[in-house]
Amino acid sequence: MTGLVPGVVVDAARLPLTHASLPAEDVRDGTPTTAYTVLDDAGGIEIGVWEMTAGTASDTEEDEVFVVLSGRATIAFTAPALPPVEVGPGSVVRLSAGMRTVWTVTETLRKVSIGI
Description:
By secondary structure, this protein is mainly beta. It has no helices and nine strands. Strand 3 (33-40) and strand 4 form a beta hairpin. It starts with 19 loop residues before the first strand and ends with a strand.
C-alpha cells in the first residue's frame, strides 16, 4: 500500500497492477483476471484501483462507491434483484455490502473505488 500524499498526483489510469486468476467457482465465462491495489486507507476509508479483464464472474460486494476510468461492463444484480447496469468511463456506482453481482466485462475495466 502507498499513502496518497496531499498535492501529489497519482495516475490511476496508468498505475501498474499485478493480475491474478479468479477462483474457478466465481468464473462464469472466459478466463478473466483481476488486480487491486490500495492507494490509501487513512481514516478507515480505503481508496484503491481495481481492474478486471474480459470475461464474466460473480462477486459478493463490499460497501463502496466507484468511478470507472476505462473499459466497459454490464453488472447484473442477483441479490437483491435489480435491473442490470451498463458502465463505462465516467460511470459512478454505489454498491452495498452483501450484494451479489455478476460482472460481464467486454473491455478491460479499471475503476477507482472508495470503501465506505
